[in-house]
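User: Here's a structure from my thesis project, written as structure tokens. My advisor, Dr. K., wants to see whether a designed sequence matches the one we expressed. Can you design one independently, without my sequence as a hint?
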């Protein structure tokens, strides 16, 4: 279910508002609504609740789902934090005073205070969340300054919280510094800052007054119920520039006054689309803590930031280092979220399997920075760019990063936000709207404090003008309360002013001190006047926000780490690039053993006892061999990938995932010297299913036959192969061979009947199918063999004796008949076909080429 589905449900179905209320009442305690209501419901474990089971289950599950969405997994668009992160930084700032200027304290103290006061969950979850806030390879701008082992990019876990220490970073203070001024405040729009904790003994912030768009700077990842979020981190300077730009594109008065919701949405959509063009001048794209290279065009990034979702390739970076005897590729960064040790292990496995002959060693020399050295052999002459293209395509040195800008958007009058997928412009708009409310409330707080101080100073000023009289009144008074009453009556002061006067120390009556008080009064009046002017003008408020954002960018300069490029070097890589082109012969035996050698002599090559050669396929190591099985599957692999052996070879089942009872019945090669049709350009779609291209003909034991083209099976397949035909239950393929238009096919049955028919009578299928009837069989009969009519079949009878059968000696008939009877008695015991010939790989095979051209 998408975030939009939840929003529509909550808007249309009044009953679902119970879920929102339950989430609010839970105080963000995590699984409260879904966990607590499921156990009791007022009736206890033994009670009975009357109602519809489906509706009750739906309501309770929705309570749980909404709690996970709003109180665990999805961050708030305003401060960019999830509840657990917000509680951690609040505890460190408010309760423990662990600012960037304080000394580090044990992480166990922080975790204990968080779970004891605000977060009723396990200590492991809280500590892991705090550890992530401290990891500079996970956070673009870490919020926690950790001391001790807080994990590494190699995937090492952090030390236990009894060993590590922590405090907030300097930039974390920018999120929390204004929070004390918000306590007890509530905006006219209904924005509440605090709510009771889960046990009602204290208060916790609903949101903190972030001074920069933390959601974009550090990003967020989370999986909720029916939705997920994956917001990438960005560069602080770029985000602040974009936020300053967005100030000029905030909602206009006409848009806010529009009463028609659809028209208002259209106006907002057009405004944000126009703003996005300006924002992309400041934000180049995501900026990951680990650096790397993001492969994306400007158009793709614009679509990502407009829709709030998309995906891009992220690659590690590398450089070349030449030495006298060796060439080294130095990997200087790994993709975000990838463990470096796992990547090094992947590269090591590639070296051991010799998939890249030029790559002879890997060494991890990393300290704080990533430094992985790959040694290349200069003898191979392989270009380093080609090696890296292979590694990018076959290891986690390149990953596809999926983005989903789902976050919680505030709902007026509610403590719980609604999930929505936002674009870049809308995220900045929500932040700036929140920032406007925050700055206004901060100024209102400052103005109130100024007026309170001005009020006291005005009392001092009144008394100082008649200081002698005031002293006489105080000396004649019988006590503080009496003096206060007389001063209030004599100088028309209120209780607050009189109390401050009576608490004043005697040295403040000196002339110099009196002048300081008057100077302070003038200063406070000027400051109050300035704040009042700012509060009266929204334009001045925006100017203050703009200035503060620009100051933040200057205070935290941080160069960009991730490069953006629209060039994908992996597209230039092909699997043949690292295969040394040399001729080889592949032997496949009847019992399913396969091996590769430079040359094979069937008289001397080793095979298991009782086994015999089924097929010999020759070609370049860059070409493929296609194996056809009795189950109708074709398995294609490069000749280079066939294990080289001087022994019996390797079972085919080790190279592919065969089904039970599956075995190889035929094999062909794709080298143009043995399959000359592949020496020409691949035909257009559909042409390969028409004459005069050669085709493969497959025959089943049940007398069915079909033709298919070899083009779809030319390239390497997966371990599960590709289907070339289908056989009925109990039936299987017994022969697959190549035919041309003029070729005939001969089929011999177990009862000694032979049918010879033109291959053109067998239907050519565009996909795997059952085919047509080649031979009509009796109930107790089946096909024993099938081959081109030119092939000599050595038939051994069950009654004894042998007979040679050559199909071309018989007149071709129409397919679908019973064939001619070769003998009266005895069934076929075994059919022997000629021993496969060693293929000729000379370039002068002109006859087949000319035949293919025709």
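Assistant: Designed independently from the structure alone:
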């Amino acid at each position: 279910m998408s975030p939009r589905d939840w929003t529509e449900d909550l808007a249309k179905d009044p009953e679902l508002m119970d879920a929102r209320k339950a989430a609010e009442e839970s105080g963000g305690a995590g699984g409260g609504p879904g966990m607590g209501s499921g156990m009791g419901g007022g009736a206890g474990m033994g009670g009975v609740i009357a109602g519809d089971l489906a509706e009750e289950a739906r309501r309770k599950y929705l309570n749980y789902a909404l709690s996970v969405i709003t109180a665990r997994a999805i961050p708030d668009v305003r401060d960019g934090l999830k509840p657990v992160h917000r509680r951690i930084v609040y505890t460190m700032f408010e309760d423990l005073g662990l600012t960037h200027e304080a000394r580090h304290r044990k992480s166990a103290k922080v975790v204990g205070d968080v779970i004891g006061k605000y977060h009723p969950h396990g200590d492991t979850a809280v500590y892991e969340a705090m550890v992530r806030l401290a990891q500079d390879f996970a956070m673009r701008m870490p919020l926690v300054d950790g001391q001790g082992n807080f994990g590494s990019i190699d995937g090492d876990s952090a030390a236990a919280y009894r060993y590590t220490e922590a405090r907030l970073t300097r930039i974390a203070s920018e999120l929390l510094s204004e929070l004390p001024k918000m306590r007890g405040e509530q905006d006219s729009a209904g924005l509440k800052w605090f709510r009771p904790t889960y046990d009602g003994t204290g208060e916790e912030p609903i949101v903190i007054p972030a001074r920069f768009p933390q959601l974009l700077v550090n990003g967020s990842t989370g999986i909720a119920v029916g939705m997920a979020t994956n917001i990438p981190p960005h560069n602080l300077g770029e985000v602040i520039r974009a936020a300053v730009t967005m100030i000029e594109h905030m909602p206009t008065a006409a848009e806010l006054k529009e009463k028609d919701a659809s028209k208002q949405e259209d106006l907002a959509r057009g405004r944000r689309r126009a703003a996005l063009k300006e924002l992309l001048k400041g934000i180049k794209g995501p900026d990951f803590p680990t650096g790397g290279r993001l492969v994306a065009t400007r158009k793709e990034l614009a679509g990502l930031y407009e829709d709030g979702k998309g995906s891009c390739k992220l690659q590690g970076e590398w450089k070349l280092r030449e030495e006298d005897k060796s060439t080294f590729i130095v990997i200087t960064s790994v993709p975000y979220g990838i463990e470096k040790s796992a990547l090094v292990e992947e590269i090591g496995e590639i070296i051991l399997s010799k998939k890249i002959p030029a790559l002879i060693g890997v060494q991890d020399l990393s300290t704080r920075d990533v430094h992985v050295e790959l040694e290349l052999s200069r003898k191979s002459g392989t270009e380093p760019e080609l090696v890296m293209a292979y590694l990018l395509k076959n290891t986690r040195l390149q990953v596809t990063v999926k983005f989903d800008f789902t976050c919680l958007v505030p709902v007026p009058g509610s403590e719980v936000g609604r999930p929505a997928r936002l674009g870049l412009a809308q995220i900045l708009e929500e932040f700036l709207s929140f920032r406007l409310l925050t700055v206004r409330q901060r100024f209102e707080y400052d103005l109130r404090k100024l007026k309170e101080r001005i009020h006291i100073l005005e009392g001092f000023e009144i008394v100082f003008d008649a200081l002698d009289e005031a002293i006489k009144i105080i000396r004649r008074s019988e006590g503080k309360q009496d003096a206060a009453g007389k001063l209030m009556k004599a100088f028309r002061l209120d209780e607050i002013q009189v109390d401050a006067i009576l608490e004043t120390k005697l040295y403040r009556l000196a002339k110099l001190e009196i002048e300081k008080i008057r100077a302070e009064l003038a200063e406070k009046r000027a400051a109050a006047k300035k704040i009042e002017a700012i509060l009266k003008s929204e334009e001045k408020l925006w100017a203050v926000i703009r200035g503060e954002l620009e100051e933040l960018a200057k205070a935290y300069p941080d160069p960009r780490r991730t490069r953006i490029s629209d060039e994908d070097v992996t597209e230039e890589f092909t699997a043949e690039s690292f295969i040394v082109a040399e001729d080889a012969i592949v032997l496949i035996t009847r019992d399913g053993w396969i091996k590769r050698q430079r040359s094979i002599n069937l008289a001397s090559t080793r095979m298991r006892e009782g086994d015999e050669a089924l097929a010999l396929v020759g070609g370049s190591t860059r070409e493929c061999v296609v194996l056809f099985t009795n189950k109708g599957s074709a398995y294609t692999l490069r000749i280079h990938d066939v294990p080289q052996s001087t022994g019996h070879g390797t079972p085919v089942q080790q190279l592919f995932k065969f089904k039970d009872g599956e075995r190889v019945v035929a094999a062909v090669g794709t080298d143009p010297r043995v399959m000359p049709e592949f020496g020409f350009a691949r035909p257009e779609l559909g042409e390969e299913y028409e004459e005069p291209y050669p085709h493969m003909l497959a025959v089943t034991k049940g007398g069915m036959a079909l033709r298919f083209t070899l083009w779809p099976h030319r390239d390497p397949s997966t371990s599960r192969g590709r289907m070339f035909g289908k056989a009925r239950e109990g039936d299987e393929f017994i022969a697959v061979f190549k035919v041309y238009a003029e070729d005939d096919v001969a089929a011999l049955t177990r009862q000694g009947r032979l049918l010879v028919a033109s291959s053109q009578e067998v239907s050519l299928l565009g996909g795997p199918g059952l085919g047509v009837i080649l031979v009509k069989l009796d109930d107790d009969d089946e096909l024993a063999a099938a081959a081109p009519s030119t092939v000599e079949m050595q038939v051994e009878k069950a009654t004894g004796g042998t007979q040679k059968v050559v199909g071309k000696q018989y007149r071709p008939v129409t397919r679908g008949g019973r064939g001619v009877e070769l003998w009266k008695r005895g069934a076929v015991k075994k059919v022997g076909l000629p021993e496969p010939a060693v293929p000729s790989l000379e370039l002068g095979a002109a006859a087949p080429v000319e035949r293919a051209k025709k």
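When you compare it with your expressed construct, this may help: The mean pLDDT is 87.
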